[in-house]
Design brief:
This protein is an alpha+beta fold. It has two domains: 40 residues, no CATH class; 86 residues, no CATH class. The protein is 37% helix and 18% strand. It is built from four helices and seven strands; from the N terminus they run βαβαβααββββ. A three-stranded antiparallel sheet has the order 3-5-4. Strands 1-2 form a two-stranded parallel sheet. Strands 6-7 form a two-stranded antiparallel ribbon. Helix 3 crosses helix 4. The longest helix has 20 residues. The chain is globular and about 40 Å long.
Length: 129
């Protein structure tokens, strides 16, 4: 069961489906408002350009209140997101804006904001979000 139709929910549903699970997606919002925080954020996401620098930035964002193992796992997951999305037919593009939100923090040079989720259908790309 996946709760929500934001980017995290949809990606989770696809990953579960690809692992041969039966998937049920639940969304409380009416159809015209579905999409969760992803829709509110303009369907943009940020991912580090490398894991080690991403760890520095995430550590600074957390004010040292999170353990390094969790922060590294998050940075690694964020780093591979674009590669996984490309395998799914998505064409992520660096926006050159909103990056980084906190340029004064260590590791901010690794922050890139991405947009333009495009999905390939029969060889044709169409805007999804």
């Amino acid at each position: 069961m996946v709760v929500g139709t934001g980017l995290a929910g949809i990606i989770s549903a696809i990953a579960a489906h690809d692992a041969w699970a039966k998937v049920l997606i639940l969304e409380k919002a009416p159809e015209e408002h579905e999409g969760g925080n992803s829709k509110v954020s303009g369907n943009m996401w940020w991912a580090p350009t490398d894991v080690d620098t991403g760890v520095k930035y995430l550590t600074a964002l957390c004010y040292g209140l999170r353990d390094q193992e969790s922060i590294k796992a998050l940075a690694q997951g964020m780093f591979v997101n674009n590669e996984w999305l490309m395998k799914m037919g998505v064409d992520p593009r660096s926006q050159g804006m909103f990056q980084p939100e906190y340029p004064e923090l260590p590791g901010s040079e690794a922050v890139r904001t991405w947009l333009r989720i495009l999905l390939a259908t029969n060889g044709q790309f169409s805007q999804v979000f």
